[in-house]
Design brief:
The chain is an alpha+beta fold. 26% of the residues lie in helices and 29% in strands. A 7-stranded mixed beta sheet has the order 2-1-11-5-6-8-3. A 4-stranded antiparallel beta sheet has the order 10-9-13-14, with no helix packed on it. It has a 3-stranded antiparallel beta sheet with strand order 7-4-12.
Amino acid sequence: MSQSPYMPMIDAITSHNKARNAEDKANRRLQSTIGKVVCVGRNYAAHARELGNDVPSTPLLFMKPASSVVSIHNDIRRPDPAIYGDTHYETELCIQLAADLSQASPEQAQQAIGAVTLGLDLTLRDLQSKLKAKGEPWERAKCFDGACVLADWIDPQACADFSAVNYQLYINNALKQDGDTSLMLFSVYELLSAISHAFSLQAGDVIMTGTPSGVGMLHAGDRLLLKLGAHEWQSQVR
């Protein structure tokens, strides 16, 4: 019996669906360990200036839902540019808590850190600008599915006291962002303490500590490489 001429197409579709199902399961497992994602805006003065924003005197906070979190090991999927405009990358050092924090001191915050990694705060920049211009909230530009890309969690001891942690983002082998926590306006422990005074943090919560200068637009086919010390992670943009 001869094989149907449509079998190669059917096999390709089946293979694609299996891959997507595996990605979805991996993302759901990652999301299930996270309560909320707290993001810190303009924590590097150079980044604030490159976007024409004022440098804050206190941490600027916003959130992403756990449903926005995806693994770096999957392809990065941008919302349709024809509908939503440009998607920008923002590389950030990310902390996951191992204990609850409320009204905490910096010393107490230090003891609550359970893991560290790098992440991408993806932003629909055109949409964000339009919403800001109208004085409206801009969660639509920051909270879409896939808007928080996280690499693998590692032992926080790899970052010592977090005072001088260096990390990079390369796109197509070109260095785009070179972060150093010594340049933060608010240090990691100060941030965690300040956030815990604004609202309670819980074990499993993730804090994205802000992005250095060099943010820009993602394009289909871009190859990303994130580096944190001896750790490296790769992904590709769709």
